[in-house]
């Protein structure tokens, strides 16, 4: 995708991008700061989108744009009728690895309800470090599939579906597999070494995706993977509250931090990688 131009209103840029999507054009509004957003477009559609942009600037209050925004609101989800973050468009986000991990987590949770001790013994790191041999090296990854309450499961899978799905669609299945496995390893080893073996959950990988979206939005906004400042603040405050131990739930804080740092590192490694066209 190529940068068409900038608008000095984030809201206007999103309205225009929504209109373009309803016309079948690959257009994204990338927030650059609180007052500006860039318009990115597929190079093959540059001419019609540029013409549409001139028409929009001439008459941004035309009812066609309100109609497009309403149409998009039927397929693009948000909380409270608005978007908490930009760039996460809930259409065609389910890549094969995103779906596979979601289904595995659901199956493992079902197994935990039927035979909790057996499931935990099979997938958890409930052994001494020296006892984990080469044949059991998968234990450094498998705790990501363990969840100890329905709330824990739903919360992690919701974020996995939204973030991993968008990542896989834009950067490919191979990149998502690499990020997920490496961040699961880093998160699980950090939690095991600094706290102990009794933990589980996909949140370390979810925090890696948070970290990637956070820094990719700064390092390579053309990828279209980014978080607004409000979501970044929520992510960091939630992790801080976990370390302060003031929440009503027990959290794998070092896994969260390890995952976050892993995701930021991946954003730096892929800072020059172009995203797939929409």
Task: Give the ordered list of helices and strands.
Answer: EHEEHHHHHHHHH
Stated plainly, the CATH topology of the largest domain is called Rhomboid-like fold
Beta-strand content estimate: 5-15%
What would you call the structural class? Answer: mainly alpha
Q: What order do the strands of the largest sheet run in, or round the barrel if closed?
A: 1-3-2
Q: What is the helix fraction of residues, given as a range?
A: 55-70%
What's the number of extended β-strand segments?
3
CATH architecture of the largest domain: Up-down Bundle
Mean pLDDT: 82
Distance between the termini: 9 Å
CATH class of the largest domain: Mainly Alpha
With helices defined by DSSP (H or I, 4 residues minimum), what is the helix count?
Answer: 10
Described by the principal axes of the CA atoms, the overall outline is elongated
Domain Peptidase S54 GlpG peptidase N-terminal: 1-77
Main location: membrane
GO molecular function, one term: peptidase activity
Family: Belongs to the peptidase S54 family.
Summarize the structure.
This protein is mostly helical.
Tell me about this structure.
- Keywords: Cell inner membrane, Cell membrane, Hydrolase, Membrane, Protease, Transmembrane, Transmembrane helix.
- GO terms for molecular function: peptidase activity.
- It is found in: Membrane.
- β2 and β3 (37-41) form a beta hairpin.
- α1 (10-22) crosses α3 (63-73) and α4 packs antiparallel against α6.
- The chain is mainly alpha-helical and 278 residues long.
- The chain folds into two domains: 2-73, 2-Layer Sandwich (Alpha-Beta Plaits); 96-269, Rhomboid-like (Rhomboid-like fold, Up-down Bundle).
- The protein is elongated and about 65 Å long.
- It has ten helices and three strands.
- Strands 1-3-2 form a three-stranded antiparallel beta sheet, with helices on one face.
- The longest helix has 22 residues, at 150-171.
